[in-house]
């Protein structure tokens, strides 16, 4: 099954089911959503790289090289022997997980997995036109969330991760375009807030790869620098 040209069947095996208390979940809305719809094991445990790659490609139309880097990186940085991942392992602070997330509290709160709904509403209020989030709006949100950090910045690698997450979120709701377009607020509210694929979900028609991600990250980093300079 591919997200490129068909509606994804979200019924039967892939209907949304709220996770139970014993299910493992992560600070990543994309992966939690995949588990909540059964594209990853619903208990979120002992997930292989192959399962991560296949699910990212099927639903979000991430290219094979990018999906592989994310999957193998996630398992190497956070997983357990023999090359498997429980979703909650992604919450290990300072590995991939970082402070100043868009819809999750900082590690000092003790919980970086549960969605913070007031942060989600603040994020949606960063929309310039009240309809969607452009990449510029995501940049605004990143600057706002980083205000309390020393130097108002994450360290270099986590800055890249954080920008990459915004770019991915933007791209999968904008048909695979890293830079142009807007992620609709009503869809973001369902995906980020309920970790559920929005009604009538059709994956991006264009595969999203390393080139798109690099272009998006460069663009959002430039927007962030620009916004920070204007604040100074
Ligand atoms: C195997 C693949 C992936 C891994 C291992 C992974 C891992 C993570 C981790 C550890 C975080 C937490 C970072 C933080 O502290 O905020 C995160 C956040 C995030 N991820 Fe993923 N991710 C993957 C794929 C994806 C994909 C495909 C998308 C988009 C379609 C995505 C979108 C996001 C977003 C938007 C956030 C930020 C949440 C926030 O700021 O509150 N991720 N991811």
From TrEMBL:
Q: Which cofactor does it need?
A: heme b
The terms under GO molecular function for this entry are: metal ion binding; peroxidase activity
What domain of life does the native source organism fall in?
Eukaryota
- The answer to whether the entry has keyword Transport is no
The alphabetical list of record keywords is: Heme, Iron, Metal-binding, Oxidoreductase, Peroxidase
Q: In the UniProt record, does the keyword Oxidoreductase occur?
A: yes
Specify the signal sequence span: none
- Which stretches make up the Heme haloperoxidase family profile domain? 12-219
Provide the family line: Belongs to the chloroperoxidase family.
Its recorded name reads Heme haloperoxidase family profile domain-containing protein
Q: Which organism is it from?
A: Botryobasidium botryosum (strain FD-172 SS1)
Q: Source organism lineage?
A: Eukaryota, Fungi, Dikarya, Basidiomycota, Agaricomycotina
């Amino acid at each position: 099954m591919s997200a490129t040209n068909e509606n994804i069947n979200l019924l039967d095996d892939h209907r949304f089911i709220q996770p139970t208390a014993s299910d493992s979940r992560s600070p990543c809305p994309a992966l939690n959503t995949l588990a909540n719809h059964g594209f990853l094991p619903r208990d979120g445990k002992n997930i292989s790289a192959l399962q991560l790659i296949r699910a990212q490609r099927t639903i979000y139309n991430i290219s094979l090289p990018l999906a592989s880097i994310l999957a193998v990186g996630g398992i190497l940085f956070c997983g357990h022997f023999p090359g498997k991942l429980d979703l909650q392992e992604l919450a290990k602070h300072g590995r991939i997980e970082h402070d100043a997330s868009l819809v999750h509290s900082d590690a000092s709160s003790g919980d970086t997995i549960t969605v913070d709904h007031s942060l989600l509403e603040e994020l949606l209020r960063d929309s310039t036109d009240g309809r969607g989030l452009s990449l510029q709006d995501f940049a605004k949100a990143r600057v706002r969330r980083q205000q309390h950090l020393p130097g108002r910045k994450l360290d270099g690698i986590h800055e890249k991760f954080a920008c990459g997450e915004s770019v991915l979120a933007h791209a999968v709701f904008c048909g695979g375009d890293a830079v142009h377009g807007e992620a609709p607020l009503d869809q973001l509210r369902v995906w980020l807030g309920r970790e559920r694929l929005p009604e009538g979900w059709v994956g991006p028609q264009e595969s999203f790869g390393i080139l798109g991600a690099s272009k998006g990250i460069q663009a959002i980093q430039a927007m962030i620098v620009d916004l920070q300079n204007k604040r100074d």
